[in-house]
Known about the structure:
Layout: H1 2-10, H2 19-35, H3 44-67, H4 70-95, H5 100-120, H6 123-132, H7 140-159, H8 163-195
Amino acid sequence: IPTFRRIMRNGSTEMFSGLPYIYSLLNCLICLWYGTPLISADNLLITTVNSIGAVFQFVYIILFLMYAEKAKKVRMFGLLLAVLGVFAIILFGSLQINDALTRRFFVGFLSCASLISMFASPLFIIKLVIQTKSVEFMPFYLSLSTFLMSTSFLLYGIFNNDAFIYVPNGIGTILGLIQLILYFYFESKSRENSREPLIVSYA
């Protein structure tokens, strides 16, 4: 929300990346499908959470498209259509599998892959943070919520003995922790630099 307040206030997406929202939408849709009784039993919590998540991601992507420059807007719109197309293929393809266990493994592996890609998407921002030595375009609350969400589902997957949930969320926990470490490291560095006295030369 703070990120999109800034985008709307400035009328520009600046150097913010739309990829985390695209990957998150794909992940929410696939995990939503994985949690339905047609795919796996006793996982309706996964469907509920990811349904809400998908609505949020749609809103974020629409706002991003409204304020992005033309080239970025076209790219984002293309990626959105690709995500919806991929999900439609997964939905239709999985329903063609008659064996329930095989269907669960098929959707489970895809949900695992989508989760990993979602958690890996901030790597683009991590690269930018290291290059610019600034956390300006890596929102703290997005990094924190990613870490808390992946840690919660890591524990949920362990307690339910569901590898399709705990394996990718274990990776997400590690990547989320890396983002938080980088945030505090470069944020403290920028504070130190701002406290350095100005040297004025009268020569």
